């Protein structure tokens, strides 16, 4: 797929906190990244690193305990952080859609699937009820249901987890969004169903020429899905690179540890899987130094003396003194 360089989403110095005063949790810190048109940008990291907070901040669906402290998120030159709720509803309806981790928690258990799909067309009064039903059944066909009419009449509890996720994808693409955010969309699915859902998302991205933000803790999934990869740790971006550059020349010690902790399906590994020692830092009391420092086995003297920003070399960025030193 040809990637157009112009970004459809541009995030600048975005910071999000939960709580206030001494209980303040620094969920996102000075996030800078962009998503290009027709690109799939993958975000990886441990639980609690800020992946889902980033997705929900773009959608402006964060809980009331979240506080936007600074920064911007420009979508088609509109700053989402300063949008009214009315404007955001219009953007969510027509421009940005999201697929969540647990489809069963997003579907109304008391409504048939067809009626829930039709809700996406209620804002189009020019469409008759017959047209709306046809469009809903067409969507079910597009997400690979062999019997779309039966699914249309079904309740969520009559479908498997993978089928419910395909229904959620159908809802997400109903208005042909420019950007689809997929937040751990295959975590609750078995391996075979996961493969089907990933192939479906890739196909739909190509057909509709959508940009995609794909969030997961599974690097092997990002390798299959994404054009570029972002690794997050403790609310910060620690590495950004083209997929091929990332896996061939991983720079940040945390990114390397994530890869070493992943099992391989290509046969016996020469060495045992390597666990990452220690635990993530307390997001209430973060040091100005590298957040990964207490867990890093590659630290050098500079790491304990001064902070480091993202070091960009040949379009491969890493928040590490090793990158700065060319090590």
Strand adjacency order, main sheet: 6-7-8-3-9-10-12-11
Supply the CATH architecture: 3-Layer(aba) Sandwich
Number of strands: 12
Low-confidence stretches: none
Major β-sheet, in short?
A: 8 strands, mixed
- Inertia-based shape: globular
Number of helices: 11
Helix content: 25-40%
Order of helices and strands: EEEHEEHEHHHHEHEHEEHHEEH
Mind telling me the CATH class?
Answer: Alpha Beta
Per DSSP, what share of the residues sits in E-state strands of 2 or more residues? 15-25%
CATH fold description:
Rossmann fold
Q: What is the domain total for the residues?
A: 1
The N- and C-terminal alpha carbons lie at a distance of 34 Å
Query: What's the rounded overall pLDDT mean?
Result: 90
Identify the CATH homologous superfamily: P-loop containing nucleotide triphosphate hydrolases
Structural class: alpha/beta
Rg, nearest Å: 21 Å
Describe the structure.
The protein is built from eleven helices and twelve strands. By secondary structure, the chain is of the alpha/beta class. The strands form two sheets. The protein has an eight-stranded mixed beta sheet, with helices on both faces. Strands 2-1-4-5 form a four-stranded antiparallel beta sheet, covered by helices on one side. Strand 7, helix 7 and strand 8 form a beta-alpha-beta unit. Helix 4 packs across helix 6 and helix 6 packs parallel to helix 7. The longest helix is centred in the middle third of the chain and has 18 residues. The chain is globular, with a radius of gyration of 21 Å. The two termini are 34 Å apart. The model has no long low-confidence stretch (mean pLDDT 90).
